[in-house]
Write a structure and sequence with these properties.
Layout: E1 3-7, H1 11-22, E2 26-30, H2 34-43, E3 60-62, H3 65-69, E4 74-77, H4 84-91, E5 100-103, H5 116-123, E6 128-133, H6 138-141, E7 147-152, H7 156-166, E8 171-176, H8 179-201, H9 206-227, H10 231-234, H11 237-248, H12 253-262, H13 267-274, H14 279-293, H15 299-309, H16 314-322
């Protein structure tokens, strides 16, 4: 049995806390919101973020960040990526050197273009920053539905520790050394999922969805390899796997926001209606900056940015993607 804290009581943090508790670990969940902690203590259910999922009585809840960080075997960072740096900064005085911290959010920091584990290392230099990611919706994990994830760490023993914490009969966890590839795939797929949702909102069909997914993973892979990620990660669960589920499911907040934008709502109106953090909006600018920095063409990411931040209509963006210069599908498949 391990002592594990989950920092963040949103839908994903709540679902993972249930997995950990069901696996017999001592779990403490932190939220900055007193009302949220009170709700979870009294109802044993996150009625707004994960309705219908009953939480074990053994899970503890707190608003005290020092209590949540002190003396734990593992800390799970489940706050949205936009709030990761500020939360980590608040934690740093309470975290011991060598503390394993597992990021489970997906995004790129807009101001620095850094992946979450790099942000953790910035703010808590003595920690061991790891990642857990893959094609997973909290709504399904919370209900014990079959799911696969990947635990990434610089040391094999740390990845295997995370694997052992979470693995059970409905949650299979693989291990990987490619933190960069795992986190880039998780962040960039959210931007592509916005595009998939926008196409849905415009009334497009399965053909368009297939095109966005396949051309989207091509963009993700090109940029990811240029930065230093491994192709195997982009071809696996944290690449194409995560992209498929996020582009296809109505559980996906990014796809849902994209649908609303395709129907004519503004970015802010779409986020307000979804009522959850839409990670792709925060990652889109960083993705475009990285594409320009590494001179990697990413037309889908570029057009999403123009729709989100430059007032371009969704219809015009789709047309722009379709009438670009003719080219082969892959430069390696030339005569």
């Amino acid at each position: 049995m391990a002592k594990v804290s989950v920092i963040g009581a949103g839908s994903w943090g709540t679902a993972l806390s249930k997995v950990l508790a069901d696996n017999g670990h001592e779990v403490l969940v932190w939220s900055i919101l007193e009302d949220e902690v009170r709700l979870l203590r009294e109802k044993r259910e996150h009625t707004s973020k994960l309705p219908g999922v009953k939480l074990p009585e053994s899970i503890g809840y707190t608003t005290d960040l020092q209590q949540a960080c002190s003396g734990q075997d593992v800390i799970i960072m489940a706050v949205p990526s936009a709030f990761l740096r500020s939360t980590a900064h608040s934690m740093k005085d309470y975290v011991q050197d060598g503390q394993i911290i597992v990021d489970v959010s997906k995004g790129l920091e807009e101001s620095t273009c850094k992946i979450p584990t790099q942000v953790l290392e910035d703010e808590i230099p003595g920690c061991v920053a790891c990642v857990l990611s893959g094609p997973s919706h909290a709504e399904e994990v919370g209900r014990g539905m079959t799911t696969t994830l990947v635990a990434g760490a610089k040391k094999q023993t740390d990845a295997e520790l995370i694997q052992n914490l979470f693995m059970c009969d409905y949650l299979r966890v693989y291990t990987s050394s490619d933190l960069l590839g795992i986190e880039l795939g998780g962040a960039l797929k959210n931007v592509i999922a916005l595009a998939a949702g926008i196409a849905d909102g415009l009334g497009q069909g399965d053909n368009a969805k297939a095109a966005i997914i396949t051309r989207g993973i091509s963009e993700i892979s090109r940029l990811g390899r240029a930065i230093g990620g491994k192709q195997e990660s982009f071809s696996g669960l944290t690449g194409i796997g995560d992209l498929i589920v996020t582009c296809s499911s109505m559980h996906s907040r990014n796809r849902r926001a994209g649908i609303l934008i395709g129907q004519g709502k503004s970015m802010q109106e779409a986020m307000d209606e979804v009522q959850m953090v839409v990670e792709g909006v925060y990652s889109a600018k960083a993705a475009r900056q990285l594409a320009e920095q590494y001179n990697v063409p990413m037309p889908i990411v570029t057009e999403v940015n123009k729709v989100l931040f430059e007032g371009k209509s969704a219809r015009d963006a789709l047309t722009e993607l379709m009438i670009r210069d003719k080219k082969p599908e892959e430069s390696s498949l030339m005569w």
